[in-house]
Amino acid sequence: MARKDESLTMVLVTRKDLTLSRGKLAAQCGHAAVECALKASRECPKQLESWRENGARKIVVEAPNLDALKRLFGAAQADDIVCYMVRDAGHTEIPSGTVTVVGLGPGPRDSIDSLTGSFGLVK
């Protein structure tokens, strides 16, 4: 649980190696954000409430490939950070089961940034 003086954040990490339309990418990030919030409501409801009351900060960055995304997910789980890996249903642009986004948080910004700080912002 975050201390009151720590800022909270959610980071959505996409895959740079996938060619997705902007709408598809936005939808996948939406899935990650919703699932992370639902998980946080079960596991750390006070942290979720604090995050929401303080602006619900979210940023979107990109990992280079699937391997980097899987390593990130494992590291987040090991650090006990709320996280969710989105696997696409395969109805539109990509095959079913394709991992598209990992959502991290809401959680302490310093903990999440230590895992995602090397990734660039999505442009």
In short:
Helices cover 42% and strands 25% of the residues. The N terminus is likely disordered.
Topology:
Blueprint: E1 8-15, H1 22-43, H2 45-53, E2 58-63, H3 66-78, E3 83-87, E4 99-108, H4 109-116, E5 120-121
Task: Characterise the protein shown here.
With 123 residues, the protein is α+β, with helices and mostly antiparallel strands. Helix content is 42%, strand content 25%. It is built from 4 helices and 5 strands, in the order βααβαββαβ. Strands 3-4-1-2-5 form a 5-stranded mixed β-sheet, sandwiched between helices. It is globular, with a radius of gyration of 14 Å. The termini are far apart. Mean pLDDT is 94; it is low at 1-5.
Radius of gyration equals 14 Å
CATH class: Alpha Beta
CATH topology: Bit1
Termini Cα gap: 31 Å
The general outline is globular
Number of strands: 5
Report low-confidence residues grouped into runs of 5 or more: 1-5
The number of helices is 4
The secondary-structure class comes to alpha+beta
CATH superfamily membership: Bit1
CATH architecture: 3-Layer(aba) Sandwich
Mean pLDDT: 94
Strand order of the largest sheet: 3-4-1-2-5
Query: Helices and strands, in N-to-C order?
Result: EHHEHEEHE
Give structural attributes.
123 residues; alpha+beta; Bit1; five-stranded mixed beta sheet; 5 strands; disordered N terminus
